[in-house]
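Troubleshooting entry. The earlier prediction with magnesium ion gave an output that would not parse, so I re-checked the input for stray whitespace and re-submitted. Clean input:
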Amino acid sequence: MGLLSLGTPLPWEEAKNYADYVRNQGINQFLSIYHKLKDKQKDCLLWGDEVEYMVIAFDEENKNAKLSLRVFEILDELQKEEEAALKNLNSDEVIKTSWKPEYGGYMLEGTPGVPYGGTLKELLQVESNMKFRRQLAAKYMKPNEVPITITSFPNLGCQGQFLEPHYEPKGEASRSLFVPDQIINPHARFQTLTANIRKRRGSKVAINMPIFHDTKTPKPFIDPTIPRNRNLFPEDKEADEGMALPDHIYMDAMVFGMGCCCLQITFQATNIEEARRLYDQLANMGPIMLALTAAAPIYRGYLSDVDCRWNVIAGSVDDRTKEERGLEPLKNNRFIINKSRYDSIDCYISTDNTLKPEYNDLDLVYDKEICKNLMDNGIDELLARHIAHLFIRDPLVIFEESLEPKEDASDHFENIQSTNWQTMRFKPPPPNSTIGWRVEFRSMEIQITDFENAAFAVFIVLLTRAILSYGLNFYIPISKVDENMKIAHKRDAVLNEKFWFRKNVFENEKNNIIYGNENLDNDGSDSKSMQQPNGHNYTDKNPISVEDEYEQMSIDKIINGSCNKFPGLITLINRYLESINIDIESRCILGKYLEFVKKRAKGEIQTTAKWIREFVRSHPKYQEDSVVTQEINYDLMKIIEKIQKGEANVPELLGNFKV
Ligand code: ADP
Ligand code: MG
Ligand code: MG
């Protein structure tokens, strides 16, 4: 969630007057960082995952599973333990975990204490570190509380009780019909963010996800649980005035999206060029991994007809005014903007010569003045446009204290950057640190077990190594990546849908050469290094038209390949692993993760979304009407708790893999 600066946040009426100031300062800060650090070379691979947890409180008497709002006490203890551990470290030790608050007052974010390095040995520690994090978090919970990794909490915003302690849904920040403000992290930043998005937009956010029509779901489905006659806030009438669509699950607050959990991975690249390259290549994996990790089929107590969270979050922070959404002529605003601040990326940014201009085929909305300023100050056009695109947005939370001028800061830049929640994030180094240029992969949904989360984290890390080793080229026109994002949301997309993908991931014949051991640095330790040489510059000898470069493939084909036609990403990763001669034991562990991803892609084991949907539909109390009752929710949370502890046998979800 970015840095949590402390201070006094300005309400929107005041904050909006400083928007240009923050943007100008932000651009100056970016320029200063860029010019100081653009030539930074030979940073090593460092990477880290972020796992988000919900704290569930079981009420055994009433058979209810609720979200516990005690996170602040828990986080306080975790951070104290972190500080104590730091003090007692021997010189050869590193701290194992790090904890941060998240948007929901029931959410925790845990990361490794320090990023992992570029050795295989560290890949093997991911799962045990995740397990350790979960145990540590649980240590500070009450006996009836558990940390659970689920993407969307089924009963959030339902009638009845879903929070511990319970509060009625009335709150100035969200003005929601369904949730109280106590559900939001009490830090002023999050409350202000919520209120300012609503005020900037000029209404509450309106998220409508299609209902899953089961055999007894009414048609049309008009949600009987939406309060129709409340008069607490002027916004209360929005639902009746058309914001709540028939046949949809209507949600009216930021927490429905930002209160979802996900799995993110950040990588440090060797230099800025490599970071820009990874940003582009991984962008195309965004929708593929979203579909493969789909885990969110239930919202506000109803089965929906989608399997993942992305569009819900996009809607939950959509601060665009009517003018910006193209519903009214531009008068007070400057741009018609086609996407929410939380959405897929709109442009590729690599300096690599495999990036053809045709791939950037979206009509990029960007601030022309900012772009010119950046280019006048030595930034190339692609990067200038990327930054000028991020900077079409207003800063949402401005701390009064941050308006004082200061040297060597990045706070104003980060203000805009970190509230552009896109599928990928290109992260410049913070000023005055040893950290290098990084990219963050942000589309994956969180899985129930540490095993699954480790498997996806390891898969993505190894994929970046294969991309860099073999100079893989995943480019397709970026509009096709957007199409893939839509497809990824469909129910059982992994099984039934096809995604645009590049046919020849080797740029040209020359790239078919597989790099051997001589290209791999060894870090001198007993474990293999995954650091890669960089700078593949290939020229295209036989240009073919862009339209012929890609086709629609199943996820099975993309991941597992198809007889000589397409190698499959797992094959490429395996080849990479063979090329670095790893020991049998490590190979075996990594092989297990890859095997899991392979089976998920083949449909041999279910996505979390499918498994949850089936669990609900086969529950004895389910009425075939799309309704997920308190009791079904309770049973679901109970079995999830067992699964994550390895105490339930669920071959449809985990095959024969042991957690
Ligand atoms: P954000 O808040 O932008 O998502 P965080 O600061 O929470 O990012 O860090 C995200 C992940 O990045 C964590 O897993 C952390 O371990 C990892 N990380 C920290 N420093 C580096 C680095 N220099 N290179 C790569 N990853 C890093
Ligand atoms: Mg974070
Ligand atoms: Mg993150």
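This one parsed fine. The chain has one domain: 9-496+604-654.
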